Model the fold of this input.
Amino acid sequence: MVCPFKKILVYLDGSEGAMSALMYAIMLASSTGASLHAVYVVNTKALGDLLSSHIFIDQEKLEYLEDLKADAARHLRHAKKLADSKGVGILTEKLEGAPNVMVLKYAKEHSVDLIVLGSVNKIRSRRDELMSENDRMLRTSACPVLVVKDDDSIWSMFEEE
Done:
């Protein structure tokens, strides 16, 4: 049987759900021979919204942006370390912009066949709605999207492998 995907993209956002998605994507790439890409998007759109709402001033925005970039680099290094531990090659990329737009653009530009996301949470507040990038990707992706759930099970499988 031929595997229906050759390129897997996992979106990282620093959440536990994204870590589970990464682990699952690594196991999937290992078992299918698909290439693996990991993308972390520094959400500069949200930063701009905070600035225009006068929640941040310019200097605070710049400091926060640098912190976000450092977080992105740290999470991508961790993704590489986890993939290496399972003998899986991984291409990592830090992008800036609106996460749903940038991830889908990356997927199109790199001919990704499958996007792997962490759980899509219920929206309980305006903040949750602003942060529901996974939901937007799930609804607007041109390629199949796999939503990883049951974090405990995924973490156990990854550690046992």
About this structure: Strands lie at 7-12, 35-43, 90-97, 114-117, 145-147. Residues 58-85 form the longest helix (28 residues).
